Amino acid sequence: MYAVVRRIAGDDDLAEDYAQEAWIRAIRALPTFRGEARFSTWLHRIAVNSALQAVRKEKTRRKREAPLPDVIAVPPRIGDTLMQRKLEEALAKLPDGMRKVLILHDVEGYTHEEIGAALGVTSGTSKSQLFKARAKMRHMLKGYENETSRKEIEAWSV
């Protein structure tokens, strides 16, 4: 099995990981082996499929990652420290699901489809949770507005 996945992986360390995953899959799928083909052929197909899936997964991960520049310019922090604290407190008071969706969408930039897949919910549920989270944040932050923080609050209501 190692030799098969080694040719696909092109790397000894990756091949070891892929082979281990293939063995795990083979053991789990053992009750489904019908005996219509040779056992070695069945194992070979599991190893190939497992390695190809791992390669695709790695390729997708690499597409999503972007190299960081050597120097990252950090703009000076401007804004109301009290407002920042209030934002953090309000965020901590949100129910877990709403907080996760709000952070994933508004802070991390994920789409509702990606959030749904990550959290195991539909994209509609993600949209609904985001709408409710923003409304709760606006309600909790009402009264803490000033010129600087008004822009921060408006950012939550986009």
Detail the topology: elements first, then pairings:
Elements: H1 2-9, H2 12-29, H3 39-64, H4 81-93, H5 96-107, H6 112-119, H7 123-141, H8 147-156
Structural overview:
The protein is an all-alpha fold and 158 residues long. The protein is 72% helix and 0% strand. The chain has eight helices and no strands.
Low-confidence stretches: none
Class by alpha and beta content:
mainly alpha
Order of helices and strands: HHHHHHHH
Rg computed from alpha carbons, rounded to a whole number of angstroms: 24 Å
Number of strands: 0
User: The biggest beta sheet, please?
Assistant: none
For the residues shown, what is the average pLDDT?
Answer: 83
| C-alpha end-to-end distance | 52 Å
Which geometry do the CA atoms define?
elongated
Number of helices: 8
Question: Which percent bin holds the helix content?
Answer: over 70%
Strand content: under 5%
